[in-house]
Specification:
alpha+beta; three-stranded antiparallel beta sheet; globular; about 200 residues; about 20% strand
């Protein structure tokens, strides 16, 4: 099953979940699959052509849970992480993002001391963080509650400088969701080949 020419939308969610098992992404419940199948029946037929069922499935298992009262985010997967580029809480959005990325990267990319400085103007945002004792500063291009996804490029640059063979590889759902994997290049290429979902390691 699968292949570069595979159309995910012609597969059931059960079939897609089985395919993900080959990549170590497990634990997808029957309840979730049934819920996603039900959602499909609620979309207008013309909307289905622009949707990617694999992206919807990955998003459902990897967005994590955010408690608005405590500001605490908890992961729901240790293999894949997804986030909406329009953040839920702009005040600590990059802290949550880095928590999500760290949750799939393990010891390879441990980020600490995250401090978001929004400055006085819309485009003044700076994000300070530490990796392996080295402090870094990322100047975000956008303000408000929108992520600057070039932060993924910055983190991949740090990984390269560390000599790691792992990178952040990602895809989108065609809208506002970014789905991130932490893997080696051959894993990313194999995923692309088997699922038909292209993974990239830079935002250009």
């Amino acid at each position: 099953m699968g292949g570069a020419d595979m159309n995910c939308n012609k597969r059931t969610y059960q079939e897609l979940a089985k395919l993900l098992e080959d990549f170590g992404i497990t634990g997808i419940s029957n309840e979730l699959i049934e819920s996603l199948e039900q959602q499909l029946t609620e979309f207008p037929p013309e909307a289905l052509d622009s949707m990617n069922k694999m992206a919807l499935l990955l998003t459902a298992i990897s967005t994590g849970r955010y408690d608005f009262q405590t500001g605490v985010w908890k992961p729901t997967s240790d293999n894949v992480y997804s986030f909406d580029i329009e953040a839920l809480d702009s005040g600590n959005m990059y802290e949550v993002l880095f928590q999500g990325l760290s949750s799939i990267a393990g010891d390879q990319l441990q980020i600490s001391d995250v401090r978001q400085d929004d400055g006085e103007n819309y485009y003044d945002r700076k994000v300070h963080f530490t990796v392996d004792g080295t402090e870094h500063c990322f100047r975000a291009e956008f303000g408000g509650d929108w992520y600057d996804t070039k932060v993924l490029d910055e983190l991949n640059k740090i990984l390269e400088e560390k000599g790691s063979l792992y990178r952040l590889w990602f895809m989108t759902d065609g809208y506002q969701q970014v789905i991130v994997f932490f893997c080696k290049e051959d894993w990313a290429h194999r995923f692309t080949e088997k699922t038909g979902c292209a993974l990239v390691s830079n935002t250009n």
